[in-house]
Structures are given as C-alpha cells and as structure tokens.
From TrEMBL:
Gene3D superfamilies referenced in this protein's UniProt entry, alphabetically: NAD(P)-binding Rossmann-like Domain
GO BP terms in the entry: L-threonine catabolic process
GO molecular function: L-threonine 3-dehydrogenase activity
Family listed: Belongs to the NAD(P)-dependent epimerase/dehydratase family.
TM helices/strands, residue ranges: none
Protein name, as recorded: Nucleoside-diphosphate-sugar epimerase
Domain NAD-dependent epimerase/dehydratase: 5-240
Length: 313
C-alpha cells in the first residue's frame, strides 16, 4: 500500500518546509497538507483541519486512506504564556485527537514534535541528557512533556508507532516562526538584510540550542525512516545542532553587515530562556538512528543572508 501522509499544521514554520520535502519523497498526490486556513500559495492537496475537531481529522484520514500523520500544530512557548489554560487545552486536545484517530485507524506511524522547552530548573544546563528531570516552567513546555509521555503510553499500550524529537530553536529562511522564545534568531537575519536596527528580547549572552531548518527536516525524516526496533526512546529524542548567544550571531552578521545595530531589551522571554538548556546531549539519536548535524553558525549565517538578500531584492 502507498504511504499517504497527512501533515497537520502545514502552514507553520516547520510544516511549510517539511511538507515540500515529504512531497519530494512520496510524490505530490501522497501528501495532504492541512491547517486552520487555506494556504493560497501551496501547490498540492490541501484540506482545512481544525485539529481540536476529531471528526474532521477522521474524515480526512478516511478520505485519503492516510498511513502516516505528522502533527505539528501547537501554541509555542512565548505565545502560550498569554493564555495558559487555552494553550494547554489546544495543545493537548489536538494531540489526543491525533493519537486516538491514529489508534482507531491503524495508522502506521505518527510524528509528534517536542521541544527543549520540556526542560526546566531540575535539568543540567550544559549537555542536557535525554533522561534529565523534566520540570518545565511554561505551559507549552508542560504540554510537550505530558505529550511525550502520552506518545510513549500509546506505543506501550496500543503499539502505536509514535516517534518524536525535541527540537531546539529552528532557523530557516523559508518561513517565519511565531510565538516562540527562539524566534529572535530568525528575525535578526531579516532585519540585518533589510538594514534595519534590531531590538533583541534576550540578553546578549543568552546561550540557547538552535538548529538549521535543513538539519531539522532531515532529522525528522531520518527518524521516521529508521527501523522500528532501532528506536528505544519512545518519549522524545534530544537532537542538537549548535548553541549560540545573540552576541555571537551579531558578530557573524557584522562580518557581512559591519554597521548592523542591535539594542538589547530583555522581556519576559528572557525568563523562559534562562531555564532552558544552553546545550544538548544527543548521543542516543546519534547512536540509534545515525543523527548528525551539518550546519554551524557560520554556514547558517551565510545561507540565511544569501537567501534573504534574494527574497528582499
Ligand atoms: C519556542 O521557542 O517556543 C520554540 C521551541 C524551542 O520549541 N521554538
């Protein structure tokens, strides 16, 4: 039987890029993109799905005989703090709907993205291991930590093959993030290329784990392709790209834009960032499914600037 993929949250930062990569892999007819709103620019099959509505997910799964679901819809760390209870409801309800529809329809594989936001003060800040203590301080982090455990529960209890990665901040030129604490690391490149001043909501020395979009997408597909019995972590895998602080990105950018100006105005997102790891230990992902990042800060900066220069020309 053909692999038929449903991507929920396909208009988002990761979803919009992942969907195209999945189309390359499985062909355009075998990938169904979905989100709350139609994406006029999208080339391929698109369905409007509000993932809080289980029946709607069921309809699409039945109609296209879906075999894999990537559930990318969620409210992120900074945005989630505006409405904590609504964020919990949305992040959990959508996950339960996906897990239940997947169980009821014998879906082959499910992808659930987790995040470095699952870590809090109880975890070491440097080289944080997969199995560190989880006491997240944002509602987004709490929902991801709970989600990871539910992913494992569905695997152990029902044999549902749910796979998950804890993403660091994702940096790409193709799409914009929305509502995250790591978003500055994308916005800063847009401002540099537009030759505008950048106001940074984190302190200059705030080190956070980040990953280039191409690495993040490749990691996702590699994990989903890995043989089932090579996967021992059924909560979520740490993956690391690189770690850097705002002042380090600024100094890379200034190699190309020497007059680039930045003001540091830390806000509530500084509090969130200061509880997150500075760097991640991803030894299990490397050992079990061969994960290896390819891009460092210099590569990322060169590619971001080159691509955004073309975009804004
Ligand atoms: C956020 O900043 O909330 C996200 C994440 C690290 O999960 N980018």
């Amino acid at each position: 039987m053909d692999t038929k993929v449903l991507v929920i949250g396909a208009n988002g930062q990761l979803g919009s890029v992942l969907t195209k990569e999945l189309q390359k892999k499985y062909t355009i007819e075998n990938v169904i993109a979905s989100d709350l709103r139609q994406n006029e620019e999208y080339k391929g099959i698109f369905e409007i799905i509000d993932a809080t509505n289980k029946n709607r997910i069921q309809e699409v799964v039945e109609r296209y005989k879906i075999t894999q679901i990537y559930h990318l819809a969620a409210i992120l760390s900074a945005k989630g703090e505006e409405t904590p209870l609504a964020t919990w409801d949305i992040n959990m309800k959508t996950l339960f709907n996906v897990l239940e529809v997947s169980r009821e329809n014998n879906i082959d594989k499910v992808f659930f993205p987790s995040s470095i936001a699952v870590f809090g003060e109880g975890a070491p800040l440097d080289n944080t291991p997969d199995n560190a203590y989880l006491n997240p301080a944002t509602v987004y982090g709490i929902s991801k930590a709970a989600g990871e455990n539910w992913a494992q529960y569905y695997f152990l209890r029902y044999g549902l093959d749910v796979r998950s990665i804890r993403y660091p901040g994702v940096i790409g030129y193709q799409s914009l993030p929305g509502g995250g604490t790591t978003d500055y690391a994308v916005d800063i490149y847009h401002k540099a290329v537009l030759e505008e001043e950048f106001e940074c909501f984190l302190k200059q020395d705030t080190m956070l784990p980040m990953i280039f979009m191409d690495d993040a997408i490749r990691a996702t597909i590699e994990l989903m392709e890995a043989p089932k019995d090579s996967i021992t972590v059924r909560t979520s895998y740490n993956i690391a790209g690189i770690s850097f602080s705002p002042e380090e990105v600024v100094s890379e950018i200034r190699k190309l834009y020497p007059d680039f100006k930045v003001n540091y105005k830390p806000d509530f997102r500084q509090e969130i960032a200061s509880r997150w790891p500075k760097s991640i230990d991803d030894a299990s992902a490397k050992k079990e499914w061969g994960w290896q990042p390819r891009y460092d800060l210099k590569d990322i900066t060169e590619i971001m600037i080159e691509k955004l220069q073309k975009k804004y020309k």
